[in-house]
Amino acid sequence: MTVENVVPHFADQTLAAGLPTGVVVLNAPGQMLWWNPAAERLLQLKAPRDNFKPLAAIIDMPEFTSYLHEKTYKTLEISAPSQPDNRLSLVVVSYEQNHFLVSIEDISHTYHIERMRQDFVANVSHELRTPLTVIRGYLEMLVDEKLLAPPPWHKILDQMYDQSLRMEKLVEDLLLLSQLETEALPEMQGQQRVNIPRMLATICDEARALSGEKKHDVILNIPKEFNLYGHEDELRSAFSNLVFNAVKYTPAGGAIYVGWYKDKKGVHFSVRDTGIGIEKKHISRLTQRFYRVDKARSRENGGTGLGLAIVKHVLLRHDAVLVVESEINKGSEFRCIFPVELVIE
Description:
CATH architecture of the largest domain: 2-Layer Sandwich
Number of strands: 13
Strand content: 15-25%
Low-confidence stretches: 1-6
Distance between the termini: 54 Å
Strand order of the largest sheet: 2-1-5-4-3
Order of helices and strands: HHEEHHHEEEHHEHEEHEEHHHEEE
Mean pLDDT: 84
Helix content: 40-55%
Radius of gyration: 26 Å
């Protein structure tokens, strides 16, 4: 019996054979029934040697085996089996008669360019830390002694010191973002048990202090206490970014509602405010680095333009998603939805 005899009718085999993207047809047990020349090149396949061989035996990697067993079939990035320096992106889709179609793309060029960008940002940010610390230290000393300077210099020294603090915060955020992009999060068994209710209580206290004279009403609502598997520092960074943003963009006397609850869709961390709101055209771009809805207001509030990018990457590392709903002059809601599997009752 030949491979051709057991492959289900595939009207576009001729078309698939000419695609630059690799295509592999699998049966229910995961054995390879057919592949195009691009897949043969990317995976170093050879007929008849590899006919009916399980694809998991060719891509012998724990992450790929887990990917097949979980059957979620999102896009997966892996190293090429025979060329570890190359990078492949693959996705599995259901195909007729209990068969599956695997699409494989070589993303090595894009991957290496992205790694170069990440390394450049991380290295430059790291090198800037020391000179900025020195500059900020001397400016702090001058500000403390500014009464000895001529009056016109008082405002200048204050502005220089404020900008040095902003630059330090920018470098810290760039380093954190670089770390989130490059470091792998441990498997769930190796993650921390994070006390979310206690963390949120602390963040809300800090938000009230940040509010100061604006006197925002910060309300924390946790119907039932439960914790989460994850990375505590990363989750604290994401949650505090969202809460502090609500403080910065909500007019004096407004309300900020912080929630932690669970439903059929998953586990939710929500921040709802009565602030200025965001136009719909901006919402899809909020998590881009340095994207600002109102540049003047953002700089006035001391933002770096990286807060929501950090939130996005923290959530990606915890298999969570960010949902944003907003209405101009009525407020916004930012909701992080985590998978129920991360819950610790």
